[in-house]
Amino acid sequence: MPTGKWFACFSVEFAEPLPPWKGNVVVGIDVGLESFATLSNGEKVANPRFFRAEEKALAKAQRNLSKQPKGTLQRVRAIRIVERIHERIANRRTDFVNQMGRQLVNRFGVIAFEDLNIKDMVHSHTLAKSISDVAWRMLIKSTESKAAYAGSKIVLVDPKYTSQLCSRCGLIVKKDLSERAHNCPECGLAMDRDLNAAINILRLGLQSLRIKSVGVYPR
Fold first, then answer.
1. Would residue 120 show up in a list of annotated catalytic residues for this protein?
2. Is 192 labeled as catalytic in the residue annotation?
3. Choosing from 43, 83, 87, 114, which is the catalytic residue?
4. pLDDT of 123
5. Which of 30, 115, 120, 192 does the annotation list as catalytic?
6. Least confident of 23-27, 149-153, 175-179, 187-191
7. Which residue did the predictor score with more confidence, 142 or 213?
């Protein structure tokens, strides 16, 4: 690693039977910036904002680096300080998504996420820095890597209209990004925008697995 650390990895084969599938406990997850994740059961996970928490320290270190003449020991030391801050941000982000992924597979048999194109969102979106910071793709990959050995299944669904579709009646209710509530003029459903999306994500995930979606829809 740039900071000079070394890591040792061990691979061990063992014949441990896989746990039974927890198919009767299901969840859809809508990731976002307001909250890191909203679960279809109503739970919310706060956005840790890893980069934002270290932004001032990183800016100070980078300013100090820019003042140091090239080829000097002071510049080498300043580079190492910047690298350590980046490493600290990355480590905190990785630890967070690994812990959340473990909690999800321990609790749920089916976990549905949106199949988001993060690269396109970062390139074209005005919130590129915030999107890069929240590590949505890392969460999905971390959860996928743990799912089989926890008796869980991960399903990725088309994100099209998950935020706009009414999770009760199916009407398209258009919303700007600034609108945080879903209010359906057809059936009267009023709820948090992200929760509405999470319910839609779960419904789509269960449909793709051909599992009966009893209890998915809000009353």
1. no
2. no
3. 114
4. 53
5. 30
6. 23-27
7. 142
pLDDT for 219 beyond 70: no
pLDDT in tens, 113-136: 999 876 655 555 555 555 555 588
DSSP of 44-67: EE----HHHHHHHHHHHHHHHHHH
65-96 per-position pLDDT tens digit: 999 999 999 999 999 999 999 898 888 889 99
Query: Which residues, in sequence order, are CB contacts of 132 under 8 Å at separation 6+?
Result: 51, 122
18-24: long-range contacts, CB 8 A cutoff, minimum separation 24? 18/148, 18/149, 18/151, 19/149, 19/150, 19/151, 20/151, 21/109, 21/151, 21/152, 21/153, 22/108, 22/109, 22/150, 22/151, 22/152, 23/109, 23/110, 23/153, 23/211, 24/109
Has 30 been annotated as catalytic?
Answer: yes
Q: Looking at residue 135, what is its pLDDT? A: 81
Catalytic residue (choose from 54, 87, 133, 194):
194
Q: Which two tokens stand for residue 167?
A: 């999770």
C-alpha torsion angle, residues 178, 179, 180, 186 (rounded to 10): -160
Beta strands across the sheet bearing 26-31:
44-45, 37-39, 26-31, 110-114, 153-157
